[in-house]
Amino acid sequence: MNPQDKPPILEPSQPSLSDKKVILGIDIGTSGVRACIVEKNYPSSDSSENMLFEAHIEMPVAEIRSTNGLNTLEISQNPQIWIDTLESLLKKIGHNFPIKQITHLVLDATSSTVLLVDQSGHAYTDALMYNDAQSVLPAKVIAGLIEQSAEFSGAQGASSTLAKVATLLEQNPNLSKPIICHQIDFINHYLSGALNITDENNALKLGYNSIHQAWPNWIEKYLKTLNSTIQLPQVVKPGSFIAMIAPHIAERFGFRKNLKVMAGTTDSIAGFLASGASQIGDAVSSLGSTLAIKAISDKPLFDKRFGLYSHRLGNNWLVGGASNSGGRVLLNHYNLADLVHIVKSINNKDIEDFLKTPRQNYYPLSQAGERFPIADANLPPKMPKSPQCAVADIDGNQQCLQAHQTFLLNVLTGMTEIERLAYHKLVELHLPPVKKIFSVGGGTQNHVWMQLREKLIDAQFLHPEHQQAAYGVTKLID
């Protein structure tokens, strides 16, 4: 072939796959499972990519129970629900896409959702979900062990995977040779039969040391005080080969027998990859109920003072932190319909005029306590005064409308200053300056918030390439 000629783009129905990969990415979310099928054409020096198909199946939410004696919630789920939902998704794909064309399958799933299984991969326990926070006492023990080890660790706090595993072992003291299974590991076992193997990103909150690429000695010692027969999983890099699809799964759903099941990642990293951020100095701000940021760095950063931790991302690192500020603060004052109405009433000139006036340094929080960029468990909210008139009175009352517009502008400016301070904090901690920010999350629908950010934060703002983690996880496959 002439090197200047591009390889032909094959239709997914054509059998020849010598110059392409057809990758099925699956995102196991909290309320549903989503699939994206992407075709990548090669050689890599002239590669292109096409989105071929997307599908989504809803899933029941996790069960929430109060934890006796603790002001926390136990949030668990029967893992069979994941399998049932996944099977429905695979059937939907098979009815609408030539499924034999798929060459690679890769998943992402919620970080720190974990259960224990037996040596055959059958569930010993329900899964404790990513936001389960009952493991307060094990977390204190683990914090002491981390302090003694003088190592950085992602296994901090009651919601860490390691604390949850300790809780499961304490609640089930007589298990024989239990295997630790992240949500993604459980589903990968269902698909391929691979067991006791996990990816580096999911392993982080179990205590895996990504810098040394090894388990710290103290973790296995600690877990064996709870169950002497337990062992830690083998850890592989995201995007690496795990196993071929299980023959009975291939036959049942119509996959090719040599379909490769690849190691995946967490949902947040898959979402980051979907944005298109890929270079040192790229960052993603997630504008949701809270404000989370992740930035690509050439070196890792772990700092428990700010809840900062780092995932290995190829040859670089993904450094993340989260503020307690965000959209949840707004919903304490407005329902969604009223919020949308007020936002729509604010135009570009209103924003420009507002920014010309003297402003106070507000720090919008729903309640006392902040994680990042200020680390203070008792930091009080600093909010503007609420308008004297009710939001129901804004129609036909210009003065009342202006009062709510000013209140909203002050809160959103405060949130923007928190985001700006967060990126400055990363620089203070010797990370490369952020040059480009990709914005994701429901807050991107708020044009006032978006414009304030572009005016007050010194960076280039870009629209994400894609919003779906199921698409992002396919980026792991070269």
Distance between the termini: 22 Å
Number of domains: 2
Number of strands: 19
Beta content comes to: 15-25%
CATH superfamily of the largest domain: ATPase, nucleotide binding domain
**What are the low-pLDDT stretches, counting only 5+ consecutive residues below 50?**
1-17
Structural class: alpha/beta
In the CATH scheme, what's the topology name of the largest domain?
Nucleotidyltransferase, domain 5
Q: Mean pLDDT across all residues, rounded?
A: 91
Read across the widest sheet, the strand sequence of neighbours is 3-2-1-6-13-12
Top-tier CATH class of the largest domain:
Alpha Beta
Overall geometry: globular
Number of helices in the DSSP assignment: 14
CATH architecture of the largest domain: 2-Layer Sandwich
InterPro entries: ATPase_NBD, FGGY_N
Protein name: Carbohydrate kinase
Family: Belongs to the FGGY kinase family.
Pfam families: FGGY_N (PF00370)
Q: Could you describe the 3D structure shown?
A:
- GO terms for molecular function: kinase activity.
- Belongs to the FGGY kinase family.
- Pfam families: FGGY_N.
- Keywords: Kinase, Transferase.
- Residues 22-273 form the Carbohydrate kinase FGGY N-terminal domain.
- The chain has 478 residues and is an alpha/beta fold.
- The chain folds into two domains: 20-270, Nucleotidyltransferase, domain 5 (2-Layer Sandwich); 282-464, Nucleotidyltransferase, domain 5 (2-Layer Sandwich).
- Helices cover 32% and strands 22% of the residues.
- It has helices spanning 80-96, 136-149, 161-171, 183-192, 200-203, 217-226, 247-253, 267-275, 327-331, 336-345, 348-356, 398-428, 447-456, 469-472, and strands at residues 20-28, 32-41, 48-58, 63-66, 73-77, 104-109, 114-117, 127-128, 179-182, 197-199, 234-236, 241-244, 260-266, 282-287, 291-297, 309-313, 316-323, 436-440, 460-462.
- The protein is globular, with a radius of gyration of 24 Å.
- It starts with 19 loop residues before the first strand and ends in a 6-residue tail after the last helix.
